[in-house]
Amino acid sequence: MPDLFRHPQLNQPSMDLTNKTAIVTGASKGIGKAVVLALLEKGVKVAGWSRSNPNIQHLAFHFVQVDVSKQQQVESAFEKTMQLFGGQVHILVNNAGLGVFSKLEETSIENWHLMFDTNVHGIFYCTRKAIPVMRQQKLGHIINISSIAGLTGIEEATGYCATKFAVRGISQSLFKEVRKDNIKVTCICPGSVHTEFFNESSHVTANDTMLHPKDVADSILHVLETPDNFLTVEVELRPMNVRYS
To answer: What's the domain range around 119?
Structure first.
Protein backbone atom coordinates (compact mmCIF):
# COMPACT_ATOMS: atom_id res chain seq x y z
CA MET A 1 0.00 0.00 0.00
CA PRO A 2 1.56 3.35 -1.00
CA ASP A 3 2.51 5.87 1.69
CA LEU A 4 0.10 8.71 0.93
CA PHE A 5 1.84 10.99 3.39
CA ARG A 6 4.86 11.06 1.08
CA HIS A 7 2.92 12.32 -1.91
CA PRO A 8 4.49 15.66 -2.89
CA GLN A 9 1.16 17.48 -3.03
CA LEU A 10 0.36 16.41 0.52
CA ASN A 11 3.61 17.86 1.86
CA GLN A 12 3.34 21.39 0.52
CA PRO A 13 4.24 24.08 3.06
CA SER A 14 1.60 26.48 4.30
CA MET A 15 1.44 29.88 2.65
CA ASP A 16 3.75 32.36 4.38
CA LEU A 17 1.81 35.60 4.87
CA THR A 18 4.81 37.65 6.00
CA ASN A 19 5.10 40.91 4.02
CA LYS A 20 2.02 40.11 1.93
CA THR A 21 -0.40 43.00 1.37
CA ALA A 22 -4.12 42.98 2.16
CA ILE A 23 -7.22 45.10 1.78
CA VAL A 24 -9.92 44.51 4.38
CA THR A 25 -13.25 46.28 3.91
CA GLY A 26 -15.51 47.12 6.82
CA ALA A 27 -12.38 47.32 8.96
CA SER A 28 -13.62 49.61 11.71
CA LYS A 29 -15.34 46.99 13.89
CA GLY A 30 -16.57 43.43 14.27
CA ILE A 31 -15.24 40.76 11.92
CA GLY A 32 -13.35 43.26 9.78
CA LYS A 33 -11.34 44.70 12.66
CA ALA A 34 -10.61 41.21 14.00
CA VAL A 35 -9.32 40.16 10.57
CA VAL A 36 -7.09 43.24 10.38
CA LEU A 37 -5.55 42.48 13.79
CA ALA A 38 -5.05 38.81 12.92
CA LEU A 39 -3.32 39.67 9.64
CA LEU A 40 -1.07 42.22 11.32
CA GLU A 41 0.04 39.55 13.80
CA LYS A 42 1.09 37.41 10.83
CA GLY A 43 3.26 40.18 9.37
CA VAL A 44 0.83 41.30 6.67
CA LYS A 45 0.71 44.93 5.53
CA VAL A 46 -2.96 45.91 5.79
CA ALA A 47 -5.09 48.67 4.30
CA GLY A 48 -8.25 48.92 6.36
CA TRP A 49 -11.10 50.31 4.28
CA SER A 50 -14.09 51.69 6.16
CA ARG A 51 -16.18 54.79 6.66
CA SER A 52 -14.81 55.36 10.18
CA ASN A 53 -11.29 55.00 11.54
CA PRO A 54 -10.71 51.85 13.65
CA ASN A 55 -7.82 53.62 15.46
CA ILE A 56 -5.42 50.71 15.07
CA GLN A 57 -1.90 51.77 15.96
CA HIS A 58 0.51 49.64 13.95
CA LEU A 59 3.29 50.53 11.52
CA ALA A 60 1.93 48.07 8.94
CA PHE A 61 -1.65 49.38 9.11
CA HIS A 62 -3.04 52.09 6.86
CA PHE A 63 -6.57 53.46 7.22
CA VAL A 64 -8.31 54.38 3.98
CA GLN A 65 -11.66 56.10 4.38
CA VAL A 66 -14.16 54.77 1.86
CA ASP A 67 -17.80 53.82 1.46
CA VAL A 68 -17.65 50.68 -0.67
CA SER A 69 -21.17 51.28 -1.98
CA LYS A 70 -19.78 54.24 -3.97
CA GLN A 71 -17.87 53.25 -7.10
CA GLN A 72 -15.85 56.46 -7.34
CA GLN A 73 -14.74 56.18 -3.70
CA VAL A 74 -13.65 52.58 -4.22
CA GLU A 75 -11.59 53.49 -7.28
CA SER A 76 -9.91 56.36 -5.42
CA ALA A 77 -9.25 54.15 -2.40
CA PHE A 78 -7.73 51.45 -4.59
CA GLU A 79 -5.40 53.93 -6.29
CA LYS A 80 -4.26 55.24 -2.89
CA THR A 81 -3.74 51.70 -1.60
CA MET A 82 -1.66 50.71 -4.62
CA GLN A 83 0.58 53.71 -3.96
CA LEU A 84 1.00 52.58 -0.34
CA PHE A 85 1.74 48.97 -1.35
CA GLY A 86 3.90 49.56 -4.40
CA GLY A 87 1.24 48.34 -6.81
CA GLN A 88 0.66 44.96 -5.17
CA VAL A 89 -2.29 43.40 -3.37
CA HIS A 90 -2.21 39.75 -2.38
CA ILE A 91 -5.34 39.48 -0.22
CA LEU A 92 -8.77 41.09 -0.50
CA VAL A 93 -11.27 40.50 2.29
CA ASN A 94 -14.71 41.71 1.18
CA ASN A 95 -16.27 42.06 4.61
CA ALA A 96 -18.21 45.33 4.54
CA GLY A 97 -21.92 44.69 4.88
CA LEU A 98 -25.11 45.60 6.66
CA GLY A 99 -28.59 44.28 7.27
CA VAL A 100 -32.00 45.88 7.71
CA PHE A 101 -34.63 43.57 9.16
CA SER A 102 -38.31 43.81 8.21
CA LYS A 103 -40.98 42.03 6.22
CA LEU A 104 -40.49 42.44 2.49
CA GLU A 105 -43.53 44.68 1.97
CA GLU A 106 -42.43 46.86 4.89
CA THR A 107 -38.87 47.27 3.60
CA SER A 108 -38.25 50.72 2.22
CA ILE A 109 -36.90 51.13 -1.29
CA GLU A 110 -33.98 53.06 0.22
CA ASN A 111 -33.01 50.25 2.62
CA TRP A 112 -33.35 47.60 -0.10
CA HIS A 113 -30.95 49.54 -2.34
CA LEU A 114 -28.64 50.30 0.61
CA MET A 115 -28.17 46.58 1.32
CA PHE A 116 -27.52 45.70 -2.31
CA ASP A 117 -25.27 48.72 -2.89
CA THR A 118 -23.09 47.77 0.09
CA ASN A 119 -23.25 43.97 0.30
CA VAL A 120 -23.25 43.13 -3.42
CA HIS A 121 -22.21 46.12 -5.52
CA GLY A 122 -19.43 46.89 -3.03
CA ILE A 123 -17.90 43.45 -3.62
CA PHE A 124 -18.16 43.98 -7.37
CA TYR A 125 -16.46 47.40 -7.22
CA CYS A 126 -13.61 46.17 -4.99
CA THR A 127 -12.99 42.84 -6.69
CA ARG A 128 -12.94 44.13 -10.25
CA LYS A 129 -10.09 46.47 -9.27
CA ALA A 130 -8.09 43.80 -7.44
CA ILE A 131 -8.27 40.99 -9.99
CA PRO A 132 -6.09 42.59 -12.73
CA VAL A 133 -3.33 43.21 -10.16
CA MET A 134 -3.58 39.67 -8.78
CA ARG A 135 -3.64 38.22 -12.28
CA GLN A 136 -0.45 40.08 -13.19
CA GLN A 137 1.17 38.80 -9.98
CA LYS A 138 -0.09 35.27 -10.65
CA LEU A 139 -0.99 35.26 -6.97
CA GLY A 140 -3.96 36.36 -4.91
CA HIS A 141 -6.71 35.33 -2.52
CA ILE A 142 -10.16 36.89 -2.36
CA ILE A 143 -12.25 36.23 0.74
CA ASN A 144 -15.96 37.07 0.47
CA ILE A 145 -17.95 37.20 3.70
CA SER A 146 -21.44 35.80 3.15
CA SER A 147 -23.55 34.42 6.01
CA ILE A 148 -25.75 31.57 7.11
CA ALA A 149 -28.37 33.93 5.66
CA GLY A 150 -26.78 33.12 2.29
CA LEU A 151 -27.54 29.43 2.80
CA THR A 152 -31.13 29.54 4.03
CA GLY A 153 -33.99 32.03 4.13
CA ILE A 154 -34.67 33.90 7.37
CA GLU A 155 -37.99 35.46 8.25
CA GLU A 156 -37.96 39.26 8.14
CA ALA A 157 -34.51 39.26 6.55
CA THR A 158 -35.55 38.91 2.91
CA GLY A 159 -33.36 41.68 1.58
CA TYR A 160 -30.33 40.69 3.65
CA CYS A 161 -30.67 37.04 2.61
CA ALA A 162 -30.97 38.06 -1.02
CA THR A 163 -27.68 39.95 -0.83
CA LYS A 164 -25.85 37.12 0.95
CA PHE A 165 -27.12 34.52 -1.53
CA ALA A 166 -25.72 36.85 -4.20
CA VAL A 167 -22.33 36.90 -2.48
CA ARG A 168 -22.21 33.10 -2.67
CA GLY A 169 -23.19 33.18 -6.34
CA ILE A 170 -20.46 35.67 -7.11
CA SER A 171 -17.92 33.57 -5.21
CA GLN A 172 -18.85 30.26 -6.81
CA SER A 173 -18.66 31.70 -10.32
CA LEU A 174 -15.58 33.83 -9.73
CA PHE A 175 -13.33 31.07 -8.43
CA LYS A 176 -13.82 29.23 -11.72
CA GLU A 177 -12.89 32.36 -13.69
CA VAL A 178 -9.62 33.09 -11.88
CA ARG A 179 -8.22 29.80 -10.58
CA LYS A 180 -6.14 29.37 -13.75
CA ASP A 181 -4.35 32.61 -12.80
CA ASN A 182 -3.43 31.24 -9.36
CA ILE A 183 -6.06 33.41 -7.67
CA LYS A 184 -8.10 31.75 -4.95
CA VAL A 185 -11.66 32.74 -4.03
CA THR A 186 -13.21 31.60 -0.75
CA CYS A 187 -16.68 32.33 0.57
CA ILE A 188 -17.06 32.39 4.37
CA CYS A 189 -20.55 31.82 5.80
CA PRO A 190 -20.62 32.61 9.51
CA GLY A 191 -23.59 32.01 11.74
CA SER A 192 -24.44 34.43 14.54
CA VAL A 193 -21.41 36.50 15.53
CA HIS A 194 -21.23 38.71 18.64
CA THR A 195 -20.98 42.11 16.92
CA GLU A 196 -22.88 45.39 16.62
CA PHE A 197 -24.76 43.82 13.68
CA PHE A 198 -27.59 42.73 15.97
CA ASN A 199 -28.14 46.26 17.27
CA GLU A 200 -30.63 46.66 14.42
CA SER A 201 -32.49 43.44 15.16
CA SER A 202 -35.59 43.32 17.36
CA HIS A 203 -35.50 39.49 17.53
CA VAL A 204 -31.92 38.64 18.48
CA THR A 205 -29.57 40.22 21.00
CA ALA A 206 -25.82 39.69 20.73
CA ASN A 207 -24.53 37.44 23.51
CA ASP A 208 -21.57 35.25 24.45
CA THR A 209 -23.12 32.02 23.11
CA MET A 210 -22.50 33.34 19.60
CA LEU A 211 -19.29 33.09 17.63
CA HIS A 212 -16.82 35.88 18.30
CA PRO A 213 -15.15 37.98 15.59
CA LYS A 214 -11.77 36.42 16.43
CA ASP A 215 -13.23 32.95 15.72
CA VAL A 216 -14.08 34.04 12.19
CA ALA A 217 -10.73 35.83 11.76
CA ASP A 218 -8.83 32.70 12.84
CA SER A 219 -10.78 30.62 10.31
CA ILE A 220 -9.90 33.11 7.57
CA LEU A 221 -6.22 32.91 8.52
CA HIS A 222 -6.38 29.12 8.27
CA VAL A 223 -7.82 29.40 4.76
CA LEU A 224 -5.22 31.97 3.70
CA GLU A 225 -2.35 29.79 4.90
CA THR A 226 -3.32 26.71 2.92
CA PRO A 227 -0.79 25.40 0.34
CA ASP A 228 -0.76 26.73 -3.21
CA ASN A 229 -2.59 23.74 -4.67
CA PHE A 230 -5.32 23.74 -2.01
CA LEU A 231 -8.50 25.73 -2.68
CA THR A 232 -11.17 26.18 -0.02
CA VAL A 233 -14.27 27.24 -1.95
CA GLU A 234 -16.68 27.71 0.95
CA VAL A 235 -16.60 27.55 4.76
CA GLU A 236 -19.69 27.35 6.98
CA LEU A 237 -19.17 28.42 10.60
CA ARG A 238 -21.75 28.04 13.36
CA PRO A 239 -21.87 28.39 17.14
CA MET A 240 -22.58 25.22 19.09
CA ASN A 241 -25.57 26.81 20.84
CA VAL A 242 -28.54 25.72 18.71
CA ARG A 243 -30.67 28.75 19.66
CA TYR A 244 -28.60 30.89 17.30
CA SER A 245 -27.70 29.79 13.77
So the answer is: 17-237
